[in-house]
Amino acid sequence: MDNVRKSVIAGSWYPGDPSVLRREIAGYFQKVPDRKLSGEVVGLIAPHAGYRYSGQVAAYAYGLVRGKKYEGVVLIGPSHRVAFPGVSVWGGGAFETPLGRVPVHEKLAGEMKRSSGVLVDFPTAHAGEHSLEIQLPFLQVALGDFSFVPLVMGDQNAATCRKLAEAIVRAGKDRRLLIVASSDLSHFHEDKEARALDGVALTHMRDSDAEGLLENLARDRTEACGGGPMAVAMLAARELGASHSLVLKYAHSGEVTGDRQSVVGYASAVYYQ
Questions:
Q1: Integer CA distances (angstroms), 112 to 90, 109, 153, 171, 223, in order
Q2: Domain spans of the chain?
Q3: pTM over 0.85, yes/no
Q4: Which of 61, 83, 135, 223 measures 20 to 30 Å from 46, CA to CA?
Q5: Quick one: 4-272 is in which CATH superfamily?
Q6: CA angle 4, 6, 8 (to 5 degrees)
Q7: What pLDDT, in 10s, does the model give residues 83-139?
Q8: Torsion sign, CA atoms 127, 128, 130, 134
């Protein structure tokens, strides 16, 4: 297959050995309490740190879609390394992890790009970006075979978020899609301050309040490196029928490292019909 985006973080951010990786993810799932939802999951928010730090938090989200089937997954993450306008879509080929190749849903990606001027071709945005790749092994274990649309946001302003959400909704009206937003929360504050900042974001996540989240991010009342993807997932999921929302798990890096003077916050959430 041409145009395969190779893993850049396997063996560091998560295990590079397929059997070890599957076993680690299965272990995270085993620690998640059983939860039955009344309807179909449309959207998820999951963190994107190394699995040592945020894998257990992510498992609370992905555990809800284990064994489910979707016509496509729309995976949205922030750009950490490259600044650019708009949203970069990887429009064909596949992404590779130790668990195999995940094909890009080329038809869905093409429809989204044609319907919105906010989507651009900028492969450099994907080259070293971890925010999408870190989600794929969890999705591979949870869903088995699936195809997806990889989206990296260069702009996370409100206008870009609304336009991207509209493009996802147009493409998803007649499809069963899963929308996944990749984001961590506050960075490098001490425990008490981090919990206060993250509490603002958690309230908006719980209430599916994308506009409130974007406003408080702009006013520095909360922090999220993937605040734009979070807002897009909430906006699109709501338009595609998700009328219920839950924050599933919150934690920060200090709970793993023991260092509570400089922590990174992680949360998972679900949006469902």
A1: 12, 5, 14, 6, 28
A2: 4-272
A3: yes
A4: 83
A5: LigB-like (3.40.830.10)
A6: 155
A7: 999 999 998 999 999 999 999 999 999 999 998 999 999 999 999 999 999 999 999
A8: positive
